[in-house]
Write a structure and sequence with these properties.
- By secondary structure, the chain is α+β, with helices and mostly antiparallel strands.
- The protein folds into three domains: 1-91; 98-233, 2,3-Dihydroxybiphenyl 1,2-Dioxygenase, domain 1, CATH 3.10.180; 250-363, 2,3-Dihydroxybiphenyl 1,2-Dioxygenase, domain 1.
- The protein has six helices and 20 strands.
- The protein has helices at residues 107-112, 127-137, 170-174, 190-199, 260-271, 321-330; strands at residues 28-32, 46-53, 66-67, 81-87, 117-124, 141-144, 153-157, 160-167, 180-186, 203-211, 215-221, 227-233, 250-257, 274-280, 286-291, 296-302, 311-317, 334-342, 346-352, 358-363.
- It has an eight-stranded mixed sheet. The chain has an eight-stranded mixed sheet with strand order 14-15-16-13-17-20-19-18, with helices on one face.
- The chain starts with 27 loop residues before the first strand and ends with a strand.
């Protein structure tokens, strides 16, 4: 069970048309509603135009660079929302060099997101089949990011990396590791965080190591056995974050713990997480929402007897749940629970992919 808190994009204005009145403007934020949503770019503008509509999520109107010349104007479709124009000088590349594409956050950003989830990997037994499955179900794009002879694939939303795919490492497979999603939690100092985690009763499964110019990370688990990674990004170029609720992004994080109160105490000590609302689920106990610096981003509960071990689960945003359920089934996945509605007027479904990895989907639309 999952109880996400909806995230509402920035408000739109009834002020009508906003106009970029000078060549090569800086980043512009323009509010528009209804038929007044035509946005004119001044002649000579070179950049990209994005629409953040009034409905949940975001739509990229023009991913390519736009060039308006000879007095012509670029007109956006008649869509209500917040239009943002970014000039070429301020644009960051969407596709970075191969050795920098894996993790989409710089060292500076990771320092400011201490304790927050920032990346997600699936380790699996058949990467080609998994890539095809998630591309079909979630709508992700696929980018090859193999490096140093190691296979790695990036899943993208609106052309931007949101998660990764890799084969289960041989050592882990020999230890019985099965296909699973793993989340990365940002820390300022991976080595110090690994030492602290051990003092707090966690387990260090893979000591800190560095992918030069990309990331320093360690594979760990909490005292009850739920696995995740602690990491700090080292790259120097990153596109802006996608708005919350964008299809293909991660919408919720959920811990099935052996005992949630002890689990929360661990994450609070490690990362400074705070409690949000606690929801009474009757015989299933309490569902505790948590925040990692702002609004709630996940929840945790004591796992029911039917779940054999603690683990983290992740919910991917999709445009509509019923259609996504159909895609899961058509692609060979299994529906474990749902769809059903949860507080916040959201719909969820919990699933297993064809290789056996658990995942879930969430949407504001049935």
């Amino acid at each position: 069970m999952m109880f996400p808190t909806p995230v509402t994009p920035g408000p739109t204005s009834s002020a009508g048309v906003g106009r970029l009145a000078r060549p090569n403007p800086g980043v512009q934020r323009i509010h528009a509603t209804g038929a007044d949503a035509d946005q004119d770019l001044a002649p000579g503008c070179l950049g990209a135009l994005h629409l953040y509509p009034s409905e949940r999520g975001a739509v990229l109107l023009q991913q390519e660079r736009l060039h308006c010349c000879h007095g012509e104007s670029l007109h956006a479709p008649h869509r209500a929302g917040v239009y943002i124009f970014t000039p070429l000088s301020d644009l960051r590349p969407r596709v970075r060099p191969k050795d920098e594409r894996r993790y989409p956050y710089t060292s500076t950003e990771c320092a400011t997101m201490q304790g927050q989830f920032f990346w997600y990997d699936i380790m699996t037994t058949d990467t080609k089949a998994a890539a095809k499955f998630y591309a079909s179900v979630v709508g992700w794009g696929i980018q090859n990011a193999d490096t140093g002879g190691k296979e790695y694939t990036i899943f993208t939303a609106n052309g931007q990396g949101v998660a990764g795919l890799m084969p289960i490492p041989e050592e882990a497979a020999n230890q019985g590791v099965r296909p699973a999603w793993m989340g990365y939690i940002a820390v300022d100092d991976v080595d110090a965080a690994a030492a602290k985690l051990k003092r707090e009763g966690g387990t260090l499964h893979r000591p800190p190591e560095t992918v030069p110019g990309v990331i320093r990370f360690a594979v760990v688990s909490d005292p009850q056995g739920a696995g995740f990674l602690i990491a700090r990004g080292l790259s120097h170029d990153v596109p802006p974050s996608l708005p919350p609720g964008t299809a293909g992004t991660i919408g919720w994080r959920e811990l099935f713990a052996t005992e949630w109160k002890a689990a929360f105490a661990f994450y609070q000590t490690m990362f400074g997480w705070t409690k949000a609302d606690a929801l009474d689920m009757g015989e299933m106990g309490t569902y505790q929402l948590f925040a990692t610096g702002g609004e709630p981003v996940g929840g945790m509960m004591t796992r029911p007897a039917a779940i054999p071990r603690p683990f983290w689960g992740y919910y991917f945003n999709v445009p509509a749940i019923d259609a996504a359920v159909g895609r899961v089934k058509a692609a060979g996945g299994t529906i474990n629970m749902g769809p059903h509605e949860v507080p916040g007027s959201l719909w969820i479904v919990q699933c297993t992919d064809p290789q056996g990895a658990y995942f879930a989907l969430v949407s504001a639309k049935r």
